[in-house]
Each structure stands twice: as C-alpha cells, then as structure tokens.
Amino acid sequence: MVERLDVRKLIMTIIMILMGIAFLMPFLWMISASLKIEEDVLTFPIKWIPETWNAIENYKEVWTGSMPFLLLYWNSIKVTVLTTLISCTVSCLAAYGFAKINFKGRDLLFLIVLATFMIPPQTLLVTQFLLYRWIGLYDTHTGLILLNSFSVFGTFMLRQFYLGISNEIIESARMDGAGHFRIFASIALPLVRPAIATYAILRFIWTWNDFQNPLIFLRSEELYTIQLGVQSFSDQHGSVYSLMMAASVSAILPLLIIFIIGQKNVIEGIQLGGVKG
To answer: Where in the cell is it found (predicted)?
Structure first.
C-alpha cells in the first residue's frame, strides 16, 4: 500500500514538473528572443541560447529610443505603489469593521458591498468617465489611483481572515480599556499580516498590468503608464520581435522582483487560509 502511494505521488510530481515547464516555456522564449538578433528569433527548431548575442543593442533601443521608459516606469511605480497602499489600508479597515464591530445593519451592508462585486467593471466606465470629467480628475494620476483604491475582493478576503481571530481576544482587550483602533493596530493587524501581504502583491500585479483604465482615463503621453508605453512601442516596432520581447521583459521585471521578495508571505497566507478552511 505504501509503495502504491509512493508511485502515485511520484507520477503526480512528474506531471506537475512537466506542467510547470510547459507554463515557463513562453516566458523563457521571451527572454531568449530579447537577447537575439532579429534573424534568429523565429528560427526552428528554437535556439534557446543565442548564437549571436544582441542584448545590449535591443535593450538600449528600448530604454533610449523613442519611448521614455524611465518616465513610464516612474508613472507606473507611483500609481501602483500608492494604489496598493491606499487599497490595503481601506480594505483592512473595512474588513475589520465587517468582521469584529457589531453595528445595526452590518450584515446587510456587507451583502450590498459584496453584491457590487457581481457588476462588470466595463458597465461603469461611461459613468466614471463623465464623473471624472465633471470633478476634474480626468487625465490625472490621482483619478487613476482612486479608481482602484477600494476593492470588494480585498475587503471580502481580509474579512475571512479577521473572522478567524477569536472574539475572546477582542473582548479581553476591550475589558482592558483598548478601543477598536488600538485592537485593530496592535492585535488584529499582526495576526493577518500574511493575508495582507498576499493581497498587496495581488493588488500590485493587477494595478501594474492594468491597461484598460489608463487607456480611458489618461490622455497626456507624459502621464502614460508602462502598459500604454509598451502598446505605443508595439505600434512603432511591432514587426521587430526582438525589440518587442526586450520591452516586454522590461515591463514585467518589477513584478518578478515583487513576487520573489513577497513569495514567503504569499505561501504563509495560502497556508493560513487552508488551515482556517
């Protein structure tokens, strides 16, 4: 019986490894293509290690060419970091309120908030566009940041973790004279740190990769984010795959860095959620 289980586990491990390799191959091809001369990009069979290296020229053209990638990076970093910080703060506070503060109509209000999650974001674009034009937030980074500063998903996700905190701990703190803000900051927040880190990484990735909102709510080229910049770069060099792959690698590099730094917290958050489930 033990041998049979070991064989099954070995087979599943091999299958998962093969699936992982299959998922990584497009990414590895993108990196490989960004290092080649254009003539070698579409050769078959694929030459994963370039025979003629052209990395310096490709990346130099991307970073010093017609598109100001440094400015695009700065715009994306500013919008993404501020959006992530504000969204995490708002979601943490809202989730704690819905989980641990008893007030009249709490459950009904949470259901209303949760129901908005079922509304496709595209249905709100016209209303948001007109509203932003009216209040003067159109074509500004402030407006772009505010669009994603509240997340129903973040509130729901973090509320589930707050519910896992024993009410006895909260009541003991209240009996000692602590208010809700002190309990939130000193007790609840540290206990759900892995969940907050997980949501922060997800929010960072979603905001960094966001193409729709910058496309609609930004008009000035000096305010463009990296995704709009890559699209404009594609319009100019779309037929040159080596340059396009170099631009794509440049665009996703911060996401890889953020995930590598925060993967420990992501794993802890997933494990904590699994235990609670």
So the answer is: Cell membrane
